[in-house]
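Note to self: the last two entries modelled the partners one at a time, which told us nothing about the interface. This time every component goes in together.
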Amino acid sequence: MSKNRKFYLEDIPLDEAWRRFIAAMESSGLWKALPGEDLPLEEALGRVTAVPVWATLSSPGYHASAMDGYAVRSMDTLGATETAPKRLRIGPDRQAEYVDTGDPLPSWADAIIQIEHTQHIDEEADEFIEIQASVAPWTAVRPMGEDMVATELVLPANRLLKPVDLGALAGCGHATVSVRRRPRVAVIPTGTELVTVEQAAQEGLKSGDIIEYNSLVLSSQVRQWGGEPTRYPIVVDDYERIRETVREAAAIHDLVLVNAGSSAGSEDFTSSIVEELGTLLVHGVAIRPGHPVVLGTVTDRKTPIIGVPGYPVSCALTGEIFVEPLLSHWLGVPSKEKPKLKATISRKLLSPMGEDEWVRVTVGRVGERTVAAPLSRGAGVITSLVRADGIVRIPRFSEGVEAGREVNVELYRDPSDIDRTIVHIGSHDLCLDMLSQYLADAGRLFSSANAGSLGGLMALRRGDAHLAASHLLDPATGEYNISYVKQYLPNIPVVLMTFLHREQGLIIAPGNPRGIQGLSDLVRDDVRYVNRQRGAGTRVLLDYHLNKLGIEPERVKGYRREEYTHLAVAVAVQSGAADCGLGIASAAHALQLDFLPFEKERYDLVIPRIYYESDLLQPLLDLIHGPVLRRVVNELPGYDTTSMGTIVV
Amino acid sequence: MSKNRKFYLEDIPLDEAWRRFIAAMESSGLWKALPGEDLPLEEALGRVTAVPVWATLSSPGYHASAMDGYAVRSMDTLGATETAPKRLRIGPDRQAEYVDTGDPLPSWADAIIQIEHTQHIDEEADEFIEIQASVAPWTAVRPMGEDMVATELVLPANRLLKPVDLGALAGCGHATVSVRRRPRVAVIPTGTELVTVEQAAQEGLKSGDIIEYNSLVLSSQVRQWGGEPTRYPIVVDDYERIRETVREAAAIHDLVLVNAGSSAGSEDFTSSIVEELGTLLVHGVAIRPGHPVVLGTVTDRKTPIIGVPGYPVSCALTGEIFVEPLLSHWLGVPSKEKPKLKATISRKLLSPMGEDEWVRVTVGRVGERTVAAPLSRGAGVITSLVRADGIVRIPRFSEGVEAGREVNVELYRDPSDIDRTIVHIGSHDLCLDMLSQYLADAGRLFSSANAGSLGGLMALRRGDAHLAASHLLDPATGEYNISYVKQYLPNIPVVLMTFLHREQGLIIAPGNPRGIQGLSDLVRDDVRYVNRQRGAGTRVLLDYHLNKLGIEPERVKGYRREEYTHLAVAVAVQSGAADCGLGIASAAHALQLDFLPFEKERYDLVIPRIYYESDLLQPLLDLIHGPVLRRVVNELPGYDTTSMGTIVV
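The predicted structure of the combined assembly is written out below.
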């Protein structure tokens, strides 16, 4: 570990960074589509034509019968009517000759009579057909070249080959096609703290170990975008080793990606290596996440190199922002555009001036509104990208977006997925994950945001969600949810339906080393509590009981440390950051912690009637009323499904 | 060839056909998602999870520093201000310890101070840092499990794996993932007339030979939709051989596709084989193209089988209509939906009652309008699918659509492609294909419909196109285009710009066997002419000269046989269907025919001013004014580019 570091990155606007990068590649002749390679058609699906393709054969290659029927001379059919049918003699070079669909038109004939429009005179002798109408010349004939004429343009260059394109190429005589070579991309992960997932799965992790998966994400992106990745083994933080790996990679690849080591931290080698091996063009782009990007070219080949930031979200977005357009350009196709959608942002987004920010959002169609809900903005939270339905870009001259404003979302999903998504905002419970599993089988997607019970009711009031799970205890009545729904949703007809009952209690370390017996121990000096956020039902429950016991919240050490889920509370206990926290039995059980139960609470679903009666939610209601979900929930510790599906009000 | 055939197919509505097919698979337990197979993450991109995936490790697996900086006890920092900074002693188990981003938080610490917010007191001694502000507990710390907590749901089942999903799987400790097995699909081409494209490319084609490419299209479709195709060699029309191939294929595949042999023709074996080997469910669906589809199940395994019609367009659409939804269901994902677009249909579409019809269209954005132009409806014209931007479905209880009505288009392309498409309707010339090549390099797509010169002007009047190529001779003045533009586009400001001059003349067989010397020979009894369609500039040119020569059109044999392109006229001559036709030199040259030139005509582009000045057309104008296009056009026979780019009016 060293403190010899520079503190400052540049802050180059994205378009300026791009301009420098492209200009450097242009000057070395690398900013152009890659050359072609000949491939058999069977291997060419999804590849891009490198040159235009002209037909070498005509299709059909001869005048072909378009029907099963009889080839005739049209002039022989003149005058045939229902009342005065005509007879034509069968056999080659006579007046009628049987042909199957696709057979050549005999040279003496100029039309086909469909077999359905003919009668055999004498089935045995098979000598004549009778027709009751005349045919015009070229009837039911596919003229030579109807589909393609030799010499004609069949496919342009820069065409992404689809199945029917391959058919057309074969049909006009091409057994191979010249497609652009796949761009070769080296992906080099660096970092002494990194271990492979195979190691981790076999040997477990030590504190400080980080599973290396950025190179997996980058190489999968490269593959998805039509490139050919080389995923290098992890290189430890050693300047010379990294430099030599970069030098070797640059010699045989079109692009080098060096992951991590690109922040302004003590292990920042990439920018120095680029300076030593070539030209450093950019170090620090005014984007977020992804700020510490390095752009440059290295070695005599002037191979472009990108220093990709180490945080997983920054890494994946650097791929989308910098690598994808490069690969598309080299393949000769336009950069992939995501489907776009206008949506209402569900809460205020602050964004720093001076940086383009990419915000991950979930998107749901709630009634007439399309709502985008921001996800975690932590650059280390890869699941925020996994769960994201799309991205909202906040331009660098903006300070953010007010709640309720319209934003443009670039979708990661098919827009039709949005229409089959049930949006839940509210209290979280593991059983909602179970529910989402079964919904997937019924063709529904389930988007769930943990906003706490009260947050869920507020979301319903704003029209941001289809339903909210809630377990809000009314201290005055000891009753759950009813009074809150009346207070917060006075004008929205809702159905309040019980989902389940669940055990709440204190989650404590295994063996209960602090000897915690109940809430009254929370005032002890040696007991650190971990709390849930304001508006969470569990927080309301705590406050209710503290009040009953006459304990001032200020006396509870850790009362101000807030987590957003039961599992996060359990993790705080597991890791020793806290000694106990209030939460549900299943969270304690999941992390093999001890549990001191003290209340069985009712956990309801609040569903506006308009969605309760919608097709969208029908599969959810079916599951709640069916036996399967009930069974799997009952198998979990701390749950009671006796009232599952009971309408409260 | 045999005439033992049944004439009648069923006419089962598509939804009823589907119901029967699904019901049969349900009853044999085959209508469900396929089981999983474990794959290393590197091979799982684009595959579908077979089961939900729960985190096995937390990420981060420990409380991690989110910054480069110093780990501290937050209580030690209390009271530090700019005016009263505090000193903290450096070193493990003291008051401050240096950590890199990602390093574990030391067990005695509970916060990180970013290095930028610290000062070294004595750079040599390295004993103290000075801070000017206090930090709250957990500042700049990524708590254990911030991203994923062990036991938490990470990915649902039925998830199509994206690059970031693979990252998340690795991050929570999974080195492999259970993904649905790829559905195995046998593709069996049948037909004695079929040859492979490799044979055709090496040995050429005999009359009656047809290049087999439907199996290439079907197997590419299967691969594209996530299945694993087995492409069988061509099986000749032999009932027993086909039956045995089907039987073998059914034993080791999830689905069998038998191509061709499914019409009601004499080689119709599929339905009989299905009857013999299992259950024939459907023979003939009320769709067009694709009517003679066979659906059934075969052998004791009840393997589903589809008899796919032989015409290439019918074949490819049968894949889209029947195979894709099956594969998607087996993979546990929703059937792929194409992007949808509303458009105005450019001309009247008649459609038979009683059949769902799939009409291929090109789509262009012309000014404020989105225009869908129907392509050839011939089931043998694969290029109609290659060129199609989308499909319009005409339901079976409709007789068609009037011109100008709004239709729903299901797009084969990315909607953004439509915005970069220049729509040309009008006269065709090979040089427009050249132009489209260079436009592709400039990021523009060029959609060109051959409607003849007059058809192009009418299209501009309706607002269906951005430009129209035209070579309409005014018999009164001998001038090209000007009077027609005035007459047909009186209210649209247009730019009339010369593209090129080109040689028109009679296209005749090599060696001129009929001794044709000029238009006056067209009245001879032994000379068969092939004409262009009404409204084509070449037809106008013919009529002008016939009139000058005092020849009545009725006296020209073949005057009523109309083709839509120069190449089609040349093909008619090449194939012996006609002895001569009027057309351009390059068409005669392409097919190595003789050419009797008699007029150099001006070929202009008519461009409404509003598009002439648009960004969309700028690359086209750049090409016309640049040297490259001029050079390649000059290399073709019969062209003169002296006036390329000259504005006429």
